[in-house]
Amino acid sequence: MSLYFLDSNVISELWKKEPSPAVTAWLGSSEWLIPVVVIAEIQEGAEACPSLVRREEISHKLADFLREFSTLVMDWDSETALVWAKLKHSSEVKRQPQALWDSLIEAMAIRHTASIASRNINDFRHAKVLNPWTGEERANYQN
User: How confident is the model over 78-125, as pLDDT tens digits?
Assistant: First the structure.
């Protein structure tokens, strides 16, 4: 069984009133971890909300999620930093620039020989990516 790192859109799907049955089923049957940078990405998004109510809602949902799944958080380390720097200057990223959060998640996945679970499979250049909504997979080239 493959190990997956969750992108923020998979986590936020769980917070919907009616989350996708495909996503919840996939989460229940897969081995996954939460990259620490995804926590930062979600909290940064919350802090950017102009609405205090929405900001607090996201922050509370994230805190509840972390209480339940704190043992599944994967930390950033020095090896991941080295992988990130190499990937940041790869020909794939030079051809098609990548958002910072996605590049950090991808470096963690490559470092730990994991795949990424995300609705946005085109945001990643090197790691294998699975869309849990559709089951679509993309095997990118790992450096």
Answer: 999 999 999 999 888 888 889 999 999 999 999 999 999 999 999 999
Expressed as residue numbers, the domain containing 80 is 3-35+72-137
Residue 13 sits in a domain of what CATH number?
A: 3.40.50.1010
pLDDT by residue (tens digit) across 19-37? 999 999 999 999 999 999 9
Instruction: Name the domain count of the chain.
Output: 1
CB 3 within 8 A of CB 113: yes
Contact 37/108 with Cβ under 8 angstroms? yes
- Judge whether 100 lies within some domain: yes
